[in-house]
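A reminder before we start the practical. When you read a complex entry, don't treat the lines as separate problems. The point of joint prediction is that each chain is placed relative to the others, so the output describes one connected object in space. Small molecules and nucleic acid strands, if listed, are placed in the same frame. In the example below there are four entries. Take a minute to note the order of the lines before looking further.
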Amino acid sequence: MAKVDLARRAEIGREKRARTRAQIVEAGATLLGGRTNEAITVDAVVEAAGVAKGTFYYHFKSIGELAAAVGAGLSQSFDELLTPARLERPDPVDRLSFAFIKFLEKASADTDWARLVIQSSQSPIEFGMGVRANLKADIEEAIAQGRVSVRDVELAADIAIGIWLEVTRGIIERGPRPGTTGQALDATLRALGLSQR
Amino acid sequence: MAKVDLARRAEIGREKRARTRAQIVEAGATLLGGRTNEAITVDAVVEAAGVAKGTFYYHFKSIGELAAAVGAGLSQSFDELLTPARLERPDPVDRLSFAFIKFLEKASADTDWARLVIQSSQSPIEFGMGVRANLKADIEEAIAQGRVSVRDVELAADIAIGIWLEVTRGIIERGPRPGTTGQALDATLRALGLSQR
DNA sequence: TGTCAAAACGACTATATCGTCAATATGAGA
DNA sequence: TCTCATATTGACGATATAGTCGTTTTGACA
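Here is the predicted structure of the whole assembly.
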């Protein structure tokens, strides 16, 4: 009777499910990044993803849940950009500088990604917090070493994040310019009052 | 026959019109500042303003037109904050510093205003452009005097605006802290590589 | 090739929001 | 008090979007 392997069936299901789900998440990311101010609709998402409406609700309970999934993907892209190089850098300022440059290069190369980050930065609910936590840890370490003139960690984080976000907006708006990345980093380090090691 | 003064009638109308219109604009400003991500609705505006739906459409063609009116009011508040003091300051760095401090103080004192500015900064369509133009003029003058190490005016503007916006977000999020305003200004001047006169 | 559980579909109802318009209210001056 | 141009009202039909659900398709495996 039990001739079918139910576990295998479920696995197949999971794989197919993952493909379609990825389509929807990608469409959602594009729409979320490109919106001006009005909210995105389920109809717009399913049209962009090329799936039926029922399929959307099979995968997500609401647009909010989709947005959360997009945010999770964004978090992952940040981690992938950073994690490998973080461990091998003992100096907090090196880590901070590396991340700053890396993110800015990514934004220059992938405008859609940049738009999405900018949009997501509006709601600091979950995604931006991880990045900020890393940044704050680096700054705190540098402060402890007496190398930062801005004493308030939160303020220092705001300064670095603010410069990064607005420079990224500039790249989106006016395109990447040679030298911008390095100059932006230098400006940020000066702003924090960082003395070289 | 012509016993009524038509011009006077029209004036009365204009006054009453202005009052109701102001109510709607104020409600719109609150909603636009407080929104998370979904678009605001006409129904929400009329409820907040305490007027009927028809009244909204009597004054505005759409939500977009209301948003434009709110943006115009915001522009005006910036000008009022600045203009009187701008003319009597010959030094561009003084002007820039004054504006930076003034805006930050205003944001600390009036959180609703700050929220609205943050939200409006997303769409650099018209409102933010005036502020940016002033800022760029000041920076350009300082660059011409050889006092700024960041040579790209657009980048310099992005840096100053970025710091201001994110510090303002911090104030909204975590409340104003003593010393933040001055430290943020110092950091901005360092970021731009400004040497004192 | 047939089976079947998971996945996808899309038509449908419910609800929200838009935008209109005929009717009513307002209020300064005659 | 009456007039009337202007402003305000809110019910209404039109449209857009949300969310449901019975039906159909898919595809690995027996």
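Discuss with your neighbour: The two ends of chain A are 72 Å apart (CA to CA). What might explain this?
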